[in-house]
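FORM 7B: Structural annotation worksheet

SECTION A. Query
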Amino acid sequence: MGSTIRLVIVLVAAMLQTENGVAQETLVPVQKGGLPNDTSGGVRMGIGFEKRLGGRCLKVAYLQADSSFGQLRPRLADWTGSDRFRVDVWNPLATPIKVTWTMKHAKSRDFDTRVDVPLQLNAGKTTVAIDLRRLKNNDGSAAELSQIRHWYIACPRPLTTLFFSDFVLDAADKVERPRSAGGDSRCLLRPGAALPAIDRPILFNTPAADRIMQAVQMFPADNPWNEDISGRSVHPASRQMIATAEPNRHLYFNSDMGFVIVPNTQPRVAVKIVEYPEESDAGPYPVPENAPIEGWPLTGGLLKTYQRAVGGDRHMIVFAPGHGRLYEFYTARRRGDGWQAGQASIFDVTSNALRPAGWTSADAAGLPILPAVIRYDELQKGMVRHAMRVTVKRTRRAYVYPATHYASRATDPRLLRMGERLRLRADFDVSGFPPHARAVLKGLKKYGMFVADNGVNWCLSVAPDRRIRGLESLKRVKGRDFEVIIPTGPKGGPRSPSR
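SECTION B. Predicted structure
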C-alpha cells in the first residue's frame, strides 16, 4: 500500500468507551459515519447496512487484486495501553476469503520490520481479534506499539466485497506464556533451560541440534501434542476401528522427516506454491541453502542434487525457534535459482492455535509434522515425550481435534478419522526392547499417536538419523496392541477453563 493518501476523509476523533466493563477506544467509528482515511487504489468504500453487524457498517469493494484500505497516520497512534485490535467482518460469499492485516510503526523500514498477520474470513460473520501483546515484526523483533504510522487490510482476490463494523482497540484477559530470556526470542523453553546460540542453519542430525531441541518446548505444555492421555477412556468403537487397519500388521517406521534449525537472521526467500495456494500461508520464508528434503541423507547422494529431484511427498521442514515459528512444505523442490512447493504451512509454536477449519497442511490432517517426529536426542533421554505421527491406508471423510482436514471420500464410521488418537495398551510389556525402541513405546503409552495422513498402515515417522538404533524391534508390536481413545477437545483436558 503506497504512502500517498488517495482518499482524504475527516475522521471522528477516537473515543473512549466501555463494553461489558472493558475499556475500549474506537479507531474508526463506522456506525457514526467515520471512514478509514487511506486506500491503495482499486478499492471503493462507503457506508452500508448489514443487520448481522448491528446495522450501519463499512462496505469495502476490493476491485483489484492486492488492493487495500486502512488508516495512515492515525490520530490514536499510541497502542501501548491496549491489548487487542478488533473488528467484526461480514463475508457474504459462501467460501472463506484470505486477507492480511499489516501494521507499520516508527521503526518500520521494510518488510522485515513491519507486522503482517494473515487472516481467514469465513463465510458469514468473523470476529477478528489481534492480540497486540504478542505482535512481532516479520523478522521476529519487537513491534513499536507507541508510534503506529499505518495499518491496513489487503485482499489478494479482486472483485470481492466485505462489510466491517467499528474498528476498536480494547483490553483482553491477560494470558502470560513463558518466554525465553533476553532479546526478541519468542520460543517456549523447558523449565530451567536456556536457548543455545543459533548463528547459522543447523541440521537435525548433529549434537548442536540436539541441544537446541532439548531446550525448546514445542507448543505450550497444555497443547494436544504434549498432553498425557494415558488415563483417557477407550473409544467404544475402538476394536472396530482398529480392525479396518490390518490389526495383525506390525508397527513400522519410516526414517523420513529431517529438518533444519535457522537463526533469527536467516534471509527469507520466495517459494512458489503450485498445488494448494489457497490453503497455504504467505511467504517469504527463511529457507536456507542446506534445507533437507524428506528422507535425506539416508537416500544417499549430495543434498543439492536431491533438492532438485522429483517424486514422493518431499516434505521440507524449517524451524526458527527464536521466532517461535515452524515452516513446513509439501513436495518441495529447487528449480533454477529458486524453490517451489505444493503447499506451505506456518505454525506458531508458542500457541495452541490451529489452522483454519477445512485447511490442509504439509500433512493431510492439517497438523504440523515436526512435533511428531521421533528424534535421537529424546530417544537418548529414555522416552519420547510427545504424541507421534502415524499413517493408515484407509481413513474416514472426517477429522477430529486437533486435525483440521480430511483426505477421504469414505464415510464408513468404523474407519479412523484424521486426528484420531491411539495409544499403546498399558499392559503391553516393553521391558525386552532395545533402549531406543523402548523410549518410543513408553511414549506411545503416555502420549499416543495421531492419524496424520493416508499411507502404509501403522507407520511412524522417525528422523533419518544414523545415530538411531534398534527400531527394527518394533515389528514385535502389532496394530491390535493399540486402542483408540476418546480425545479431549479444544477446551478439554489440560485446556479446561476449570484447571
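SECTION C. Observations
The longest strand covers residues 97-105. The chain is about 5% helix and 30% strand.

SECTION D. Sign-off
Analyst initials: ____
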